[in-house]
């Protein structure tokens, strides 16, 4: 019998919920592994899971400096989508959405992926053309995209300001029906549990303090819980990428760490049925199953490792909320928090072998890390196991910046805060 | 966050535009060394700790400032006009 | 009815009766009541239903920490859900509704959830609802069906879709000392700080100053504490250097000692004064902050602890003394510290019968014993409450309890009670401090977290610091105020406090284990069992506990539940609480209206940028459109015309005779200084140092990475004086780019840049008759081909206004741009229109401008999209080989010269249908499957000159495809059709017309 099911819940209800096992063990780190994944966030855990499941590599440790899932996997606005413009991005993120669609079954853990759709509101003919180009690009790559008129938007998302007198009147919107939201923490816990059941050691409160090397080759890490050697060391540490690489002697890298805030309102009965983004500024909003409106906007806009945001940005995001959806002015902000984003120079990730021998790197997720979790883990595990990229992550090299093959969705160039 | 603009006084961060790492040096325009340009344009030290960075007081005097700020705490240690500081450095070099 | 209004006492105005409704029933209260106190006075004990199990819930606290009594306020024609009744001041006509119940509060079908209580254990939803792996409900479908119902059951209050009619305000304030909290400590701090003459702001979330002094029943300075606080408040208010903000919650502690505070300006009024905002959003920048935020009482967790009638002891005391309300007739108290004894005495004094004081401790202080005597009851020492009885509380069951071993013994003994007042100790309100400090420290004595080390400039005072007596509050308050004001500490005598010498250090008892549901987080229905299950499943870190069980994540943000939750987890793990840790508190301290944070931007989202000719456009029938923040004419439609007919007419008039368009929005930058020409040579790909004075040149800029940034013309007005124009969209970005390279890359260059976009108005006059129009209105200069050749410029006057006329063309026609001071813009525009009338001049909008430029193959933002290079746009002729420029070093990297890049072409519709911006282009005409995209349409129009639908496109291969047939593929709009790929120079490729 599968571990988690309605039947198991019923059985446990009669036995006082005493028989549930630990979601993941709390092992002591072993002195050596085949692969050590640094970073117990979504991507690191997914990588470990797919290493075990897809490649039979189970002598793996995921080491995490704090508690599991303490980084951006638990700080995002839970949006899953693949409504990208450039073919390389669409292929990668659409692969991710396909993995998402079966993820709860795959992990035997309800990650609550709800395909309620992501609607991008367009506010000028020019913006509509951009979104239509994007939707058409998605369709040509086998994805889904639908153009909605204002009337269709009015039916789908009551409450959105569709007045022709709005500062930026809505002219239409791009809907990706297969996109949606998922329960962020559950993704971390689900991957952790599934990886654990395959024999992966998940070691929390284990901070990397340095790298072990033989000549040029990285052979392990020193941690607050001792030395751990590994044939392969994989980094999936998001905003801490530069810090870790500095420990390995790489002082400069095409990443900046920026803080991004996220917000949640008080719980209310269902108000918004899909993810809506506001094109008159930069805002994305959805409603969680618990009832809170979950939303976010731009980066605060400067390098930061502080996980705390500034007030002007809060005010900017709220003004966008009220511009898009005037009824929310009467609702109340419950909580805000910040996460540290690994902003790359073109807004796209880096999933690659290297940059040092023995090392593998997964980084540069900018805003987009959460939705990418399954594909990132899958393709990174493939890269680690085979020493060469999976077809989905092949374009996301480190060398692309030097060669000029950037994947720049927003066309902003090497200014990370603008991606 | 308040940034003490040497010209305008302490001002709210929203008056400023962040212009990134200030430890990089732009190669001479005549340089065709692609590696050097690549390094200048794309690579950053991105430290967790004191960070020298440019801020333009775009909502004020529009001067670029070199601000030394701790990226872990957002505490600002030092502020100077970029142009003056760079010219001084240029003269010394 | 058990609870009632006392016959006298309290700080309410008994002479003023106020009518209000709750769930449609009418009640009355008094001025000074909160909705909660008025409901209690009316005997309403059931006020809400819980989140998950829909359990009946009553009022639990008297303040912002309220977890249960959340109501929806109906005011101004809109709904405002989830407001704690304890925070709503009563006003005439107040309408409130209970929440999360169907069909009614008394009878709620959702309460059936309780039957399945154990199924709904912590995180149960992660373990089920996944559905079948195959079949029609595979994938996410089964979950989404379940989710539909879960979402409807979840949520608290119901919000509406109607726009909020309220107005909100933003206020900046600066002060030397900000004091948060106006209890005894905050008042003392304010008095001390104000005497120094410093600028002081005192912020208090409640409507009145005084805090606990209003209901402690103590004596301060020989007066009743409430009177003392009122007198002191008056003195502070009279001081000119103090600003008092009541109903103002400091909710966020941001960098730079910036405190965000929300003032509820008119929520408490039936009719707001005209112009008053509903809320005011304060950003207060203080040199020093004194946090005197007090402490929250917390409950003891025991089975049945959520029954209506169970309340915090301090709250019962406050209801009695401040509001003259008894929450019960027969009151029992349950405590692990002395503070409940004072409540017992007060309740007795106001007329209640104290049924029992149940204390887990074996010994109590003499002061407590004396208070018990006052309350007329012998305390049950070494006892604990193990159950409660009644739909509304009628009885509690108690058993012997050993606080050391936490063991229960003996038989359960019933005690009749309609109210149980509980005290589990006090937790300093360290929320703001946690936002601006390191980790809070656990104090074994106080059984609470004390404020952390500050990381910003704040100091604490009063109960916030763990001070337990009012005397300590006064001294720490004064010291903090003096210190914050930069003054020496005073030895002057403090007001004397007469108060029972209570010991509020609690026994370390947080939970009474027993049968039945014991709630830790009331609002989220998190039980002790949930916490233990989380432990069993390994969710043992505090953050995991919080996220797995949702403990502390409700609207009260765990104010009553955090510490008990931690204590239970610590117990389960067998660790001391300090080793379990605490979570970080995040802003806001208590929920803040989103409208207040948007403030004036609510309803005025972004500024409107209008050109000097704006009114003329509107008066002449222009349909306006947004271009960035600008409003620009899209078309000047005539009755019955479609958009296409209008722009076709406008564009045709330009090609045939003459048209005029407002180009004031173009970015304009004055580039001046001895090194101006050198500077332009560096930032443009082509050469400007060779440009003669009074000539213009078209220029292209790249980013450092070699990608095209912007284009425009720059005019040389003098040896060291240039006027640069940029595209409308990129004006800001180009200015910033130039300033950056000037300040940072070439600080030695002597150049000054000034944005003059708003200083100049501009009109472009285009068409074969353009010169004739100018000839009739320009004075002071000839405008013939010799005086004003292509790319030349002259100075003159139009109807007495000085103008600068430059001959350049975006439309491909003989064309001029006429610039004048912005103040003359409309005047000059009208003069040009008048001069053009004999030629049938047509004002034209963005659509016609677009059509004309597409016919010419000129690029704009749709093509210079941040991904294209000069070569992609066939602008390589502009890349100087004689000099380096920004972007020249990286523009030839392999990835930027690949054959597969998207490059600019023209396309012509072959089926007579419009093309559609954003449509893709495919090579295959097979409509059965979507072929591989080879590019996309960037812009299209009906070309009056070519009498066809044409467009610009970026396609793989670019020029090599000229003459080829391809297909439009626009699945989003279900449009497919054949096109011919051609040169993007559709019309007059040699440029004869503009040189004419």
Helical content of chain A, roughly?
A: 25-40%
Mean pLDDT, all residues of chain B:
94
Give the % helix of chain B: 10-25%
Structural class of chain A: alpha/beta
Nearest-angstrom radius of gyration of chain A? Answer: 21 Å
Instruction: Report the span from N to C terminus of chain A.
Output: 46 Å
CATH class of the largest domain in chain A: Alpha Beta
Characterize the main sheet of chain A.
8 strands, mixed
What is the total number of structural domains of chain A?
2
Instruction: Give the name of the CATH architecture of chain B.
Output: 2-Layer Sandwich
CATH uppermost class of chain B: Alpha Beta
How would you describe the overall organization of this protein?
The complex is a heterotrimer of chains A (419), B (93) and C (996). Chain A is an alpha/beta fold. Chain A has 2 domains: 27-78 and 184-254 and 346-418, FAD/NAD(P)-binding domain (3-Layer(bba) Sandwich); 113-179 and 256-344, D-Amino Acid Oxidase, subunit A, domain 2 (D-Amino Acid Oxidase, Chain A, domain 2, 2-Layer Sandwich). Chain A is built from 11 helices and 18 strands. Chain A has helices spanning 6-14, 42-55, 87-101, 103-107, 125-140, 150-156, 184-197, 241-247, 311-324, 369-386, 400-403, and strands spanning 32-38, 60-63, 79-80, 118-122, 146-148, 172-176, 180-181, 201-203, 208-214, 217-223, 226-235, 255-267, 275-278, 283-287, 292-303, 332-344, 350-353, 359-363. In chain A, strands 1, 2, 8, 9, 10, 11, 17 and 18 form an 8-stranded mixed beta sheet that branches. In chain A, strands 5-6-4-13-14-15-12-16 form an 8-stranded mixed beta sheet. A two-stranded antiparallel ribbon of chain A has the order 3-7. In chain A, a hairpin with a 2-residue loop joins strand 10 and strand 11 (226-235). In chain A, helix 2 packs parallel to helix 7, helix 2 (42-55) packs across helix 10 and helix 3 crosses helix 10 (369-386). Chain A is globular. Chain A starts with 5 loop residues before the first helix and ends in a 16-residue tail after the last helix. Chain B is of the alpha+beta class and 93 residues long. Chain B has 2 helices and 6 strands. In chain B, the strands form 2 sheets. In chain B, strands 3-4-5-6 form a 4-stranded antiparallel beta sheet. Chain B has a two-stranded antiparallel ribbon with strand order 1-2. Chain B is globular, with a radius of gyration of 14 Å. Chain B starts with a strand and ends with a helix. Chain C has 996 residues and is α+β, with helices and mostly antiparallel strands. Chain C has 8 domains: 4-110, Ubiquitin-like (UB roll); 111-144, no CATH class; 166-296 and 428-501 and 587-605, FAD/NAD(P)-binding domain (3-Layer(bba) Sandwich); 299-423, FAD/NAD(P)-binding domain; 509-573, Arc Repressor Mutant, subunit A (Orthogonal Bundle); 621-664 and 760-851, Probable tRNA modification gtpase trme, domain 1 (Gyrase A, domain 2); 667-755, Aminomethyltransferase beta-barrel domains (Alpha-Beta Plaits, 2-Layer Sandwich); 857-881 and 898-995, Beta Barrel (Elongation Factor Tu (Ef-tu), domain 3), CATH 2.40.30.110. In chain C, 21% of the residues lie in helices and 29% in strands. In chain C, strands 9, 10, 13, 14, 15, 16 and 30 form a 7-stranded mixed beta sheet that branches. Chain C has a 7-stranded mixed beta sheet with strand order 44-45-46-47-43-37-48. The longest helix of chain C is centred in the middle third of the chain and has 15 residues, at 470-484. Chain C is elongated and about 110 Å long. The mean pLDDT of chain C is 95. The interface between A and C is large, with 118 and 120 residues. Strand 16 of chain A pairs antiparallel with strand 34 (592-593) of chain C.
């Amino acid at each position: 019998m599968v571990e988690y099911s309605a039947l198991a819940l019923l059985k446990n209800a009669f036995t006082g919920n005493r028989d549930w096992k630990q979601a993941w063990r709390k092992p002591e780190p072993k002195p050596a592994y085949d692969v050590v994944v640094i970073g117990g966030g979504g991507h690191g855990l997914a990588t470990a899971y797919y290493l075990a499941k897809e490649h039979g590599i189970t002598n793996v440790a995921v080491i995490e400096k704090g508690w599991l899932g303490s980084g951006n996997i638990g700080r995002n606005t839970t949006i899953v989508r693949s409504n990208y413009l450039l073919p390389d991005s669409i292929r990668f993120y659409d692969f991710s959405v396909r993995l998402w669609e079966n993820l709860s079954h795959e992990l035997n853990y309800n990650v609550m992926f709800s395909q309620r759709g992501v609607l991008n509101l367009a506010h000028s003919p020019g913006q509509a053309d951009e979104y239509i180009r994007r939707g058409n690009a998605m369709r040509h790559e086998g994805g889904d995209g639908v153009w909605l008129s204002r009337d269709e938007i009015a039916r789908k998302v009551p409450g959105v300001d569709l007045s022709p007198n709005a500062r930026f009147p809505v002219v239409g919107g791009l809907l990706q029906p297969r996109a949606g939201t998922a329960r962020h923490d559950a993704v971390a816990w689900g991957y952790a549990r599934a990886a654990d059941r395959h024999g992966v050691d998940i070691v929390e409160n284990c901070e990397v303090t340095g790298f072990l090397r033989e000549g040029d080759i990285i052979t392990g890490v020193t941690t607050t819980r001792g030395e751990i050697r590994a044939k392969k060391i994989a980094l999936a540490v998001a905003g801490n990428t530069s810090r870790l690489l500095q420990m390995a002697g790489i002082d400069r890298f095409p990443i900046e760490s920026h803080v991004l805030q996220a917000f949640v309102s008080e719980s209310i009965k269902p108000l918004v049925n899909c993810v809506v983004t506001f094109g008159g500024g930069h805002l994305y909003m959805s409603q969680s199953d618990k009832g809170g409106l979950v939303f976010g906007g731009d980066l605060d806009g400067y390098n930061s490792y502080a996980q705390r945001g500034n007030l002007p940005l809060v005010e900017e995001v709220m003004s966008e909320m009220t511009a898009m959806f005037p009824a929310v002015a009467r609702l109340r902000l419950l909580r805000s928090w910040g996460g540290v984003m690994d902003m790359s120079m073109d807004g796209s990730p880096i999933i690659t072998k290297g940059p040092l021998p023995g090392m593998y790197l997964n980084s540069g997720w900018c805003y987009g890390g959460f939705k990418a979790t399954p594909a990132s883990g899958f393709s990174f595990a493939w890269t680690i196991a085979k020493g060469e990229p999976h077809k989905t992550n092949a374009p996301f090299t480190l060398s692309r910046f030097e060669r000029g093959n950037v994947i720049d969705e927003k066309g902003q160039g090497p200014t990370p805060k603008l991606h | 966050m308040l940034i003490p603009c040497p010209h305008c006084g302490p001002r709210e961060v929203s008056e400023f535009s962040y212009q990134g790492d200030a430890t990089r040096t732009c190669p001479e325009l005549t340089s065709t060394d692609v590696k050097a340009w690549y390094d200048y344009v794309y690579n950053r030290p991105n430290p967790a700790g004191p960070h020298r960075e440019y801020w333009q007081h775009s909502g004020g005097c529009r001067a670029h400032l070199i601000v030394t700020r701790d990226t872990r705490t957002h505490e600002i240690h030092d502020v100077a006009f970029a142009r003056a500081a760079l010219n001084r450095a240029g003269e010394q070099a | 009815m058990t609870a009632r209004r006392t016959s006298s006492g309290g700080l309410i105005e008994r002479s003023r009766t106020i009518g209000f409704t709750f769930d449609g029933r009418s009640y009355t209260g008094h001025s000074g009541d909160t909705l909660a106190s008025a409901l209690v006075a009316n005997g309403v004990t059931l006020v809400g239903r819980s989140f998950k199990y829909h359990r009946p819930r009553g009022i639990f606290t008297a303040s912002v920490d309220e977890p249960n009594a959340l109501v929806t306020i109906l005011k101004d024609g809109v709904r405002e859900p989830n407001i704690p009744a304890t925070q709503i001041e009563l006003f005439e006509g107040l309408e409130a509704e209970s929440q999360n119940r169907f069909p009614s509060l008394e009878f709620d079908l959702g309460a059936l959830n309780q039957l399945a209580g154990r199924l709904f254990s912590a995180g149960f939803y992660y373990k089920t609802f996944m559905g079948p792996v195959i079949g029609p409900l595979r994938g996410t479908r089964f979950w989404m069906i379940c989710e539909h119902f879960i979402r409807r059951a979840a949520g608290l209050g119901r919000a509406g879709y109607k726009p909020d009619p309220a107005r909100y305000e933003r206020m900046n304030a600066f002060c030397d000392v900000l004091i948060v909290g106006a209890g005894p400590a905050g008042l003392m701090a304010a008095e001390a700080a104000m005497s120094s003459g410093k600028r002081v702001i005192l912020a208090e979330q409640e409507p009145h100053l005084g805090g606990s002094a209003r209901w402690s029943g103590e004596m301060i300075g020989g007066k009743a504490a409430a009177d003392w606080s009122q007198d002191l408040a008056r003195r502070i208010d009279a001081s000119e250097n103090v600003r008092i903000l009541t109903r103002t919650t400091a909710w966020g502690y941001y960098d730079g000692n910036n405190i965000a505070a929300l003032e509820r300006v008119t929520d408490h009024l039936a009719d707001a004064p005209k112009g008053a905002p509903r809320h005011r959003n304060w950003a207060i920048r203080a040199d020093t902050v004194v946090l005197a935020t007090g402490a929250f009482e917390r409950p003891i967790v025991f089975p049945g602890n959520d029954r209506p009638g169970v309340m915090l002891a301090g709250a019962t005391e406050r209801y009695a003394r401040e509001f003259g309300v008894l929450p019960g007739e027969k009151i029992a108290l349950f405590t692990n510290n002395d503070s409940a004894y004072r409540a017992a005495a007060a309740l007795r004094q106001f007329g209640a019968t104290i049924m029992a004081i149940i204390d887990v401790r074996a010994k109590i202080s003499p002061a407590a014993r004396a208070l018990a005597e006052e309350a007329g009851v012998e305390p049950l020492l070494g006892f604990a409450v193990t159950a409660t009885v009644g739909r509304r509380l009628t009885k509690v069951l108690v058993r012997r309890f050993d606080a050391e071993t936490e063991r229960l013994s003996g038989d359960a003994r019933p005690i009749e009670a309609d109210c149980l007042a509980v005290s589990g100790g006090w937790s300093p309100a360290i929320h703001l401090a946690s936002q601006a400090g390191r980790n809070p420290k656990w104090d074994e004595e106080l059984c609470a977290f004390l404020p952390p080390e500050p990381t910003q400039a704040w100091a604490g005072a009063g109960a916030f610091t763990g001070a337990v007596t009012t005397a300590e509050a006064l001294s720490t308050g004064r010291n903090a105020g003096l210190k914050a004001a930069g003054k020496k500490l005073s030895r002057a005598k403090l007001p004397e406090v007469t108060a029972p010498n209570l010991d509020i250090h609690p026994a370390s008892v947080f939970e009474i284990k027993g049968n039945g549901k014991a709630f830790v987080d009331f609002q989220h229905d998190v039980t002790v069992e949930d916490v233990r299950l989380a432990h069993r499943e390994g969710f043992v870190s505090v953050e995991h506990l919080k996220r797995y069980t949702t403990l502390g994540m409700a609207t009260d943000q765990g104010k009553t539940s955090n510490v008990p939750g931690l204590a239970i987890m610590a117990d389960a793990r067998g660790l001391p609480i300090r080793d379990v840790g605490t979570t970080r508190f995040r802003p806001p301290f208590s929920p803040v209206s989103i409208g207040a944070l948007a403030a004036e931007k609510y309803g005025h989202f972004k500024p409107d940028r209008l050109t000097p000719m704006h009114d003329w456009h509107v008066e002449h029938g222009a349909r306006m459109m947004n271009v960035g923040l600008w409003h620009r004419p899209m078309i000047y439609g005539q009755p019955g015309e479609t958009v296409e007919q209008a722009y076709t007419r406008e564009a045709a008039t330009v090609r045939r005779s003459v048209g005029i368009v407002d180009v004031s929005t173009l970015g304009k930058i004055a580039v001046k200084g001895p090194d101006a020409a050198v500077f332009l040579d560096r930032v443009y790909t082509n050469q400007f140092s060779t440009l003669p004075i009074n000539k213009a040149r078209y220029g292209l800029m790249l980013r450092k990475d070699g990608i095209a940034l912007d284009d425009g013309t720059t005019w040389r007005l003098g040896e060291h004086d240039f006027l640069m124009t940029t595209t409308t969209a990129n004006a800001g970005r180009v200015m910033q780019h130039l300033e950056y390279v000037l300040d940072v890359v070439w600080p030695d260059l002597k150049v000054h840049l000034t944005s003059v976009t708003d200083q100049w108005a501009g009109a472009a006059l285009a068409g074969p008759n353009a010169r004739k129009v100018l000839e009739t209105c320009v004075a002071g200069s000839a405008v013939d081909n010799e005086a004003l050749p292509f790319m030349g410029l002259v100075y003159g006057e139009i109807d007495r206004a000085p103008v600068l006329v430059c001959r350049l063309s975006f439309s491909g026609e003989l064309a001029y741009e006429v610039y004048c001071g912005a103040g003359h813009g409309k005047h000059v525009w009208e003069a040009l229109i008048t001069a053009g009338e004999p030629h049938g001049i047509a004002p034209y909008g963005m659509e016609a401008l677009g059509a004309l430029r597409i016919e010419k193959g000129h690029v704009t933002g749709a093509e210079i999209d941040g991904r294209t290079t000069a070569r992609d746009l066939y602008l390589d002729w502009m890349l100087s080989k004689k000099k380096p420029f920004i972007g020249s070093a990286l523009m030839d990297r392999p990835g930027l010269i690949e054959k597969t890049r998207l490059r600019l072409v023209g396309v012509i519709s072959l089926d007579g249908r419009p093309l559609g911006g954003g449509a893709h282009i495919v090579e295959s005409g097979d409509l059965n499957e979507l072929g591989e995209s080879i590019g996309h349409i960037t812009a299209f129009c009906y070309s009056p000159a070519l009498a066809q639908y044409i467009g610009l496109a970026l396609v793989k291969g670019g020029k090599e495809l000229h003459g080829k047939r391809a297909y439009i593929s626009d699945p989003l709009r279900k449009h497919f059709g054949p096109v011919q790929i051609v040169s993007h120079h559709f019309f007059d490729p040699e440029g004869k017309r503009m040189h004419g």
